[in-house]
């Protein structure tokens, strides 16, 4: 095994800071497994009715479920139980946030391109499963806040045409809330979903290891090498310290920042609800979409007795997340189809160098963010003394106008940043040194940019695009551009691909620089 270990322990890892973002999710998952194992020893996933007689005096004598009583016992009677509960909850939020930020890094730099499409799909599956894992864990304490979220889940199930009622009865074991949902969610939360997550994370890491890391453009970096530090000792020390740092931050949040105080909410009863209730951040988009959607419904065959499809629940529940997940899954293959680029890519793009992709990503973030913000429209209306109705109306307009504006603004910003790079390459960087020319003019001396910065800028490559419409010289369209779909593909390729702002300082046939020669330096 000496050759195997020698080869793999000396594997090179890039040293760019963005490559550590995925490790936030990985280390948070490890914390989740450890703290979840601790909590499993004391949590009782039952829905039987008991009268509380524990340490928390305000709830003594109150009837509640076994699950809620055991969650209170963990919080107040088990040594270190409340700290571990809060570490577990903060790690869950950090795990999902780490996944999202890591996916954004992958998307904006184009690291999902060949040969990493499979790993990209695995990452999307991890994200989707993390939402379900969070939903099941959020519901386990059976407090009033989690019960309200569970009620929304049941409403979403009932809104599905034809099979909604059957799905609800299957999940809850009868009429809502039934006696089975907490035990079933407990099995999903500690066994099935974590097992799948662990298998997918392992596959994700193995594929990453085999395919090698992507890296940012720069000095000495090519498609056939990786510039950085070896696994042992450099990257292992850095990664180990990062694990300890992530653990310390999570433990610090759990110690000084209260989260999910279930003893203040009280046990769940279907008849009670509280104002200002909010889900965890990653489910906020669903809350916002439900609040923004008008109360539309379809009565089949013209009568409510024949069957009602509540669009006010069905569309918010399925459309926003469906758009985002479907878009993430299809984007690598759609981009490959539009550009015709089937090459392997191990050097990633700076986001500014692919303005359309970056604009699409910011559009999706804006769409998600507005839904997330509107999930707190009642809190916004209350604190800023704004009409709740007007808050909803404004949100309905922004959900369409906001993403469109985000696309246009981001695209123009990317072009502006490309022009800045072209000016730096063409002129150099400002040195602050003023020189007087023989004829009396004063100019500022521009110095050559630092070698690593210049290499980063010059690593820019034009976005691939399909060949032109008369590539063969005989006026015959290339095969990729034949037919209505082919012509649409060619137009999309010309708009999406190509060089927008050349680095030589020229744009639209005109020189973008004037004055003294480029890269003039002083002694």
Automatic annotation (TrEMBL):
<protein>
    <recommendedName>
        <fullName>Cytochrome bc1 complex cytochrome b subunit</fullName>
        <ecNumber>7.1.1.8</ecNumber>
    </recommendedName>
</protein>
<feature type="transmembrane region" description="Helical">
    <location>
        <begin position="120"/>
        <end position="140"/>
    </location>
</feature>
<keyword id="KW-0812">Transmembrane</keyword>
<keyword id="KW-0472">Membrane</keyword>
<feature type="compositionally biased region" description="Basic and acidic residues">
    <location>
        <begin position="501"/>
        <end position="513"/>
    </location>
</feature>
<dbReference type="InterPro" id="IPR027387">
    <property type="entry name" value="Cytb/b6-like_sf"/>
</dbReference>
<dbReference type="InterPro" id="IPR005797">
    <property type="entry name" value="Cyt_b/b6_N"/>
</dbReference>
<dbReference type="Pfam" id="PF13631">
    <property type="entry name" value="Cytochrom_B_N_2"/>
</dbReference>
<feature type="transmembrane region" description="Helical">
    <location>
        <begin position="152"/>
        <end position="173"/>
    </location>
</feature>
<dbReference type="InterPro" id="IPR016174">
    <property type="entry name" value="Di-haem_cyt_TM"/>
</dbReference>
<feature type="domain" description="Cytochrome b/b6 N-terminal region profile">
    <location>
        <begin position="1"/>
        <end position="217"/>
    </location>
</feature>
<feature type="region of interest" description="Disordered">
    <location>
        <begin position="499"/>
        <end position="523"/>
    </location>
</feature>
<feature type="transmembrane region" description="Helical">
    <location>
        <begin position="185"/>
        <end position="210"/>
    </location>
</feature>
<feature type="transmembrane region" description="Helical">
    <location>
        <begin position="355"/>
        <end position="373"/>
    </location>
</feature>
<feature type="transmembrane region" description="Helical">
    <location>
        <begin position="87"/>
        <end position="108"/>
    </location>
</feature>
<feature type="transmembrane region" description="Helical">
    <location>
        <begin position="20"/>
        <end position="43"/>
    </location>
</feature>
<feature type="transmembrane region" description="Helical">
    <location>
        <begin position="393"/>
        <end position="411"/>
    </location>
</feature>
<keyword id="KW-1133">Transmembrane helix</keyword>
<feature type="transmembrane region" description="Helical">
    <location>
        <begin position="313"/>
        <end position="334"/>
    </location>
</feature>
